[in-house]
Design goal:
The structure holds two protein chains of two kinds. Chain A has nine helices and no strands. Chain A is mainly α. In chain B, helix 6 packs parallel to helix 8 and helix 9 packs across helix 10. Classes of the chains: A mainly alpha, B mainly alpha. At the A-B interface, helix 2, helix 3, helix 4, helix 6 and helix 7 of A face helix 1, helix 2, helix 6 and helix 8 of B.
């Protein structure tokens, strides 16, 4: 990226085509990977990317959108949309067939199926975390964002990011530990309930 | 479509940077290893990428210039005072609070009352103080913020009651609904930029509230089942309204604006209670979310 995001944002506010095109090119792949990792369906991930950029455009048009932290804003929108998709069950419903369809033909089918199952288990574990824990874990360990970048996404201090990361990893450890040999879980509900003040 | 060879070239911090794991390096590595299959992301279908990009640029080019000026603030301060029937005692408390707050002589009772729960002796003071705060707020955006704060407070009260296995008084859910309705009415007077921001906030807030309610339901012993269901519906409707505000501000204003008549023909129907599925919405697809038929893909 040669142009700072802030310059893009300034130009994008006036719906500058070049700036918006550059923003799309810079972030669409990254957002696709994020979406896919969360919902596990290529088509839904493409839709989610399209909807993210459309909402961004609509917000700009209405005079809203990010004042800074463009990337963080896009991640935030994408995550909210992913939560919607997950809640509606689309990801789960399409998961198995889409994944198998996406496999390269030269790979051994049994190892490919194994990887697909492992990915689905990992994804299911992520969805048992709290909203913010999941965001932090995926952004940090799968998307490769720094703590400072993540703090912009979740709009919390870096210290809170570290705490969420710590709790998220511990929660995942417990989720994986609860798995039985047949892949089912000992308990269903896992999300931590916020304590009343 | 091919599966990528990990697709992590841009994910520079991903895995094995040794950071953040205080559960012990081995345990952390074991967890990260379990997540590692998610590193594999299928390569994007080139035609999908190109069509998505083209659709986005088409949207950019066809995006009309903003035409909605900020709505004038027609609201009179006295309209903020709710018109429900109140007991004489509550009305007296309200007047006393208004006087004491106006004179700057509010005592500690009001502050203490803020920690009270429904059914407790100080709770009417807490509720009345909220109404007075709202009535004394002349700025629409501040009133909107305040109403979201009150809505969150009601949710926390419901959470506390549910946790204690106590029944939830219908006044609490009714008031929660009123908070959202009033907030939406205020939001209908915002200009487009403020409306988008407000609805994004409301959307996120109601998503979080829905998760908390579902958690309450999963732990409910049966005493609060119906009230929790009602609460979920109220929050769900608020969320749908927020989505509608993001998608179509004009329809949103028609539906939630102060001058709306419930019986005016041609206006959108009220949203139905449910699990978050929009009912009777206008517009293509009638639904927010990926692939809603808005021609971008």
């Amino acid at each position: 990226m040669t142009k700072p995001h802030s310059d893009w944002l300034i130009a994008a506010r006036s719906l500058d085509e070049d700036a918006l095109e550059a923003i799309y090119d810079a972030f669409s792949d990254e957002l696709y990977r994020y979406a896919y990792r969360l919902i596990g369906d290529p088509l839904a991930a493409e839709d989610l990317v399209a909807e993210t950029f459309y909402r961004f455009l609509r917000a700009l048009h209405a005079g809203g959108g990010p004042r800074e932290h463009l990337r963080a804003y896009l991640y935030r929108v994408a995550h909210n949309l992913a939560v919607d998709v997950h809640r509606r069950g689309r990801g789960e419903a399409l998961e198995s067939s889409e994944n198998l369809e996406a496999l390269p033909s030269e790979d051994d089918p049994s190892s490919v199926a194994e990887i697909s199952i492992q990915a689905e288990e990992a994804r299911a574990a992520l969805w048992r975390l709290t909203h913010e824990q999941r965001q932090v874990i995926v952004l940090k360990f799968l998307q490769g964002l720094s703590n400072r970048e993540i703090s912009a996404v979740i709009e919390k201090p870096v210290g809170a990011v570290k705490a969420l990361q710590h709790r998220g990893l511990n929660a995942l450890r417990r989720v994986f530990a609860m798995e039985r040999p047949d892949g089912r879980r000992e308990h269903e509900a896992f999300e931590q309930k916020p304590k009343r003040r | 479509m091919k599966r990528s060879s990990r697709n992590r070239k841009d994910d520079k911090h991903a895995f094995g940077d040794g950071s953040g794991a205080s559960a012990g390096p081995d345990e952390t590595n074991a967890v990260l290893k379990r997540l590692s299959p998610l590193q594999d992301v299928p390569e994007r279908d080139l035609s999908d990428v190109q069509s998505g990009r083209a659709a986005f640029m088409d949207s950019v080019r066809s995006m009309p210039k903003p035409v909605s000026p900020a709505f004038p603030d027609r609201r009179k301060w006295w309209k903020n005072i709710r018109r429900k029937e109140r007991s004489i005692m509550v009305s007296l408390v309200r007047v006393a609070l208004a006087l004491s707050m106006a004179l700057g002589t509010t005592g500690g009772t009001v502050a203490v009352a803020q920690a009270s729960e429904p059914g407790e002796i100080l709770y009417p003071i807490k509720v009345a103080s909220e109404d007075v705060r709202l009535a004394l707020t002349s700025d629409s955006e501040k009133a909107f913020d305040l109403l979201l704060e009150f809505a969150q407070e009601r949710l926390e009260e419901i959470d506390a009651l549910s946790e204690e296995g106590e029944s939830i008084p219908p006044q609490v859910t009714t008031r929660l609904q009123e908070h959202f309705e009033q907030a939406l009415q205020y939001a209908s007077e915002f200009d487009d930029a403020s409306l988008i921001q407000a609805m994004e906030r409301l959307s996120v807030m109601t998503q979080q509230q829905t998760r908390v309610i579902r958690q309450m339901q999963s732990q409910d012993a049966g005493n609060t089942d119906e009230a929790l269901q009602q609460t979920e519906q109220i929050v769900s409707r608020a969320r749908q309204a927020a989505e509608e505000g993001l998608e179509d501000p004009t329809t949103f204003r028609l539906r939630h604006g102060e001058n709306r008549s419930e019986d005016t023909p041609g206006q959108p129907d009220s949203l139905q209670p449910g699990d978050g599925t929009p009912q009777n919405q206008q517009g293509a697809g009638g639904q927010q979310g990926p692939g809603n038929g808005s021609g971008r893909k």
